[in-house]
């Protein structure tokens, strides 16, 4: 432990959710389809209905927040509840649902932090190419403008997108998400760039609207360490992987353009899959304008990676079952992930490396000094919780969260402006490629009955949030 273990005044202790992972009611109340609906039905492994039935039980979840001192909640709006096909006719029932939800947050003294897009693009937009098609950027801006105006009296904190890189990576490189393609690095980078342009357009629209709140974006970032810090090849491999997952996003967010070396690596990477990037002068103008307007950025952090140079065949499988050791990540001309001796992993092969969060936060401060404020918008541990004699003893999760908060505090003491921490997740919910055996919640959900039960971590988190002291 370090320093005073006390969080700054006003620090937010929150929980996180995402519409598709908690709401259920995927085909109800006028909601339009998203690509995941079709994908999950084709796969037949699990359904996102009713998930944690948040659509009907948000009052109960907000009561739990209030009781356990959770004073912030990340919520996302499902685009297709507002515009069922992504654009055009508005679904009033969906609009009213979010009014009720945001008002209930206020009634329970829980500040909503609202994301406009959390992996749930409308099916029709997906079919038209999603963000690879620039018309979708126009549609997203229209949706964002609608939400800013509609919810201006209820929402103060906005995030445009959740995890642009995860979206691009899982769809175009890992191929594990709907309409997945594998090893198309060019498409992944183009998609990231176009989504950053969409982010910039929404930020500019928000500021032009003269609204009083704050706006930013959430990125999932992991430091990429060379597996052998003395190997030139591993350093290059880590740097290439870093461009795909971190640097492209951070340059676009804070510099408003790509540094020369970032751009050079982007072109190299696109060329590996035989593509060329379409990055226009007007895109850079928008990114530059938005770079000064962002109020904050959300950092989602779960793990770090150790990267070794790799020139073999592409070989990527993700672990979507919780069978330890069943994943592999090796991308020709980029690098392969290797385990460092002595480190632990989760059952899903995610390396537990809390120091990486400190390195990441310090890196942002040093490399992008114009950042204004950060939140840890997601951090938490996927775990196979057991419910025995009315108790859910999730000590490994408590330990995971405690260590990450400890390193967050060290970064705060090192001068990084971090103003909140949101546990992923508030309650157990639907996990994109794992369904329901990968639990993250502070509150256990019995998916048969939809009853909620506080886990040991919820009691631990309550003590933290009420005192601001990390014990
Ligand atoms: C983040 C996402 O990447 O990780 C969440 O924002 C997601 O939506 C979380 O659920 C954990 O990932 P997974 O695959 O373990 O559910």
TrEMBL record:
The keyword Phosphoprotein does not apply. GO terms for biological process: lactose catabolic process via tagatose-6-phosphate. The keyword Glycoprotein does not apply. Coiled coil: none annotated. Pathway: Carbohydrate metabolism; lactose degradation; D-galactose 6-phosphate and beta-D-glucose from lactose 6-phosphate: step 1/1. Belongs to the glycosyl hydrolase 1 family. Transmembrane segments: none annotated. It comes from the Bacteria. One of its GO terms (molecular function) is beta-glucosidase activity. It catalyses: a 6-phospho-beta-D-galactoside + H2O = D-galactose 6-phosphate + an alcohol. This is 6-phospho-beta-galactosidase. It holds the Pfam family Glyco_hydro_1. PROSITE patterns: GLYCOSYL_HYDROL_F1_1, GLYCOSYL_HYDROL_F1_2. One of its GO terms (cellular component) is cytosol.
